[in-house]
Amino acid sequence: MGDSEDKKNDTKGKTQPPSREIGNANLFVDDIIFSDTEKILFEEDLQEKTTSNRDELMDGSPADRYSVTTKINEGGMKAIWEVDDHRTARKVAMALIQDSKIASENDIDSFLYEARLTANLQHPNIIPIYDIALDENGNPYFTMKALKGETLGDIIKQLRNGNAEYTRRYTRTRLLGIFLKTCNAIDYAHTKGVIHLDLKPSNINIGDFGDVHVLDWGLSTLITHLNEYDGEPVSWQSMDDVSLESGQTLTRYLERTAKRREFKNVVGGTPGYMSPEQAQGVPSDVDFQTDVYMLGSVLYEILTYQCPISGSTVKEALQKTVRGDFSSPMKRAPELRIPAPLNAITMKAMATDPSERYPNIATLIRDLHQYQDGFATVAENPTFVTHVALLIKRHKLAVGMVSLSACLIVGILANSFFSIKKSESIAVEALEEVRETNEYIATIAQRVAPDYLDLMAQHEKEYEFDAAEESLNTCLAFDPLLETAWLQKGKMLLSHQDFSSAWNILSGIHGHPVEKHPTAVRLAKKYKDFDNLTDAQLPQLVKDFKAYNIAEGIPRFFYRANKAPFNPATRFPAIKESLKILNPKITNLNFSWTELGSDGWIIGIGDNPDLEDISPLCGLKIRLLNANNIGTPDLKLLTEEGLLELRLSGSRLNHLVEIDQMAKLKMLDISNTRIRNLNSLIRYPKLTALDISGIVDLTISPQLIWMQNLKMLTVSEEFRNDPTIRAIARRGVIIIYSGN
Asked: How does residue 13 score in pLDDT terms, banded at 50, 70 and 90?
């Protein structure tokens, strides 16, 4: 009793929390059941912890464990207090739901949902949650790491005001480092199916020792739960004439509209940072790329020290957001001399159309690393001049020395020509130095040229033919004497059916040294008088490519041929004949084609168990591909975007590659295959129908849960009681159980 009185006396004079006692924390981790891969962590555990089992979160008196010291922050539904944790002898932060903000049981459930979701996002740049509990009145709280330091918003404000100390400490390089850590946190959250939905500088904390934490996951939700909204778009009309306050967050709870979770379905965001799809209020349009847009908004403010979109009212800000009405960072803050690559990265991330943004956070991070390393970024659509400029920049020390030498030489020349006291020998020596300088520059280029040749080979291996050609041209511009590069150029021209130019290069007539390849020379000579081959001649050329040991050029050959206009009545028989040549084990090839107007082709290559090489399909605009019961061809040869339906049932494929051109895939059948790793399926976000039945030793991937557009799933009977399948079924997906 005496100890209790002492504790009460100790709290006198300190800032007091809201007038209620706080229930003791009951470690929430005990309520979550983990599998080896955290299988249904969010879908199952976050869904089923409802009001019916809240009592288990109440235990003991919080005053025995915590002593409140001071209020840290207040906003939205909760207030944050700094408290002393007597058990661990440390200071922690405590989030309390404010009495005045509790309108219904849904508010408490929503508060608990945020705490549980954040607790399961275990990343160095996401604030860790320690305990979750209810006080004796049934109101929730949770404790977390007590953060020191200041928010990125506070830092940018000081930079905007010209604070010299902040300008010295927070250079652009350091701010980009903070931004990359933020991106890493969100990229991790996306792998768990979680979207933040309220990213802004004030929700990013920078500690005294450089630690970065993404805060306030109150609007965050699972990608799957956004599909559950079946009501009308959320209207912000009630806020049309409301003055826009800096950092103001708009929130709407979608009551009685979620099919399974009425208590937690929230949309909203912060005007100025929220994406167009958030501003339009259609939850089903929100996706991982919504966070990409908001990260672009944060990067915009890092570069310009200003919010990307401003307005006097909420309505004005939202209208500008939907229209994409904002200036680029370079135009907004020309005095800050924002680099063009960073400007391009920001504008790509903030594209009004989600399909024009970075497809995921990882690609945004990769582009930023490219910029930091001195290479061209995807966002810039780099040209040859861009590559050369960046080459010079990466070797700026050497180029600087050369430039300095050139200046000195110019001075010496001027002095020698205009001074009668200097002898002619000085000018000769100066000219010699100029020659040596030019040779030095050429040496630098020659050292880099092989790197571009390697890059060409890498692009060619991935069937990225246009990028490979650009890299090869850059290589030859840097070193016109590189024999291997000229050989590759000649072979590339053979694949382009430019036989005359290929002959000039491979035979050495063009005047540059070229690595010898006798069979390639003979092939070029054979066809050098042909301008263009007819479709009927294509199979013979395929035979010659094989016979002359340059079969690696066949995919590029068909890529170029099939992307150009052609007559299907002659082209497809040539493709069929070429498939027979490349797959000699097949005695009777099944091959069919049907035109879908100008939209592409339906191709059938099914029931060919020995089909291994599908190079002749490269470059075709295929919309539906029936490849049931085939061998193990490289699907990356399907180079064109827009494939909608892919049937691989009974094929001998044992893995499904992650390729961007399948991003629009709607139907996929991999039944009775050896494809057991389903993790890559999340890369196909448009899938509506999936068949994974009949796969031996299949393990159901928990990532199937995040396939928000899935409408029909076919699985083997053995998975009828699988928790992942049950979770998907509860979401309204039609499950078809196939017999073994």
From this structure: very low
For residues 329 and 199, membership in a common domain is answered with: yes
Q: Which of 85, 120, 145 is the last residue of a domain?
A: 145
Answer yes or no: do 76 and 192 share one domain.
no
Based on the fold, state whether residues 263 and 373 are members of the same structural domain. yes
Q: Are residues 378 and 399 in the same domain?
A: no
Place of tokens 């929430």: 28
Q: Where in the sequence is the domain holding 315, given as residue range(s)?
A: 150-382
Interhelix angle 152-160/288-304, rounded to 10 degrees, is 30
Are residues 416 and 350 part of one domain?
no
| Residue 155 counted as domain residue | yes
Q: What is the mean pLDDT of residues 663-692?
A: 86
Q: Specify if 714 maps to a domain.
A: no
Residues in the chain: 740
Please say whether the beta carbons of 450 and 483 come within 8 A.
Answer: no
Per DSSP, the chain holds a count of helices (H) and strands (E) of: 24, 20
Check if the beta carbon of residue 266 is closer than 8 Å to that of residue 110.
Answer: yes
- Do 203 and 197 form a contact (C-beta atoms < 8 A)? no
pLDDT confidence of 681, banded at 50, 70, 90? confident
Task: Spell out the residues 6+ positions from residue 690 whose beta carbon is closer than 8 angstroms to its own.
Answer: 667, 668, 669, 681, 707, 710, 712, 713, 714
pTM, rounded to two decimals: 0.54
Beta carbons of 106 and 255 less than 8 angstroms apart: yes
Give the H or E element holding residue 206. Answer: strand 204-206
88, 122, 145 — which closes off a domain?
145
Q: What is the pLDDT of residues 358-370, one digit of tens each?
A: 988 988 998 898 8
d(CA 406, CA 428): 15
pLDDT in tens, 114-127: 788 888 888 999 98
Calculate what percentage of the chain has a pLDDT beyond 70. Answer: 74
Q: How far is CA 593 from the centre of its chain?
A: 35
- Measured CA to CA in angstroms, residue 628 lies from 201, 611, 669 at distances of 51, 11, 9
**Dist CA 241 CA 238 (whole Å):** 8
d(CA 144, CA 65): 14
Rg of the Cα atoms in the chain: 32
CATH of the domain at 287: 1.10.510.10
- For residue 67, the SS3 value is strand
Residue 355 and residue 412 in one domain: no
Same domain assignment for residues 302 and 413: no
CATH code at position 122: 3.30.200.20
From residue 170, how far is each of 173, 174, 178, 303 by CA, in Å?
Answer: 8, 6, 10, 12
Q: Number of structural domains, the chain?
A: 3
CA atoms of 520 and 723, how far apart (whole Å):
58
SS3 for 228? coil
Q: 414 and 316 in one domain? A: no
Q: Beta strand 250-253 with 221-222: parallel, antiparallel or unpaired?
A: unpaired
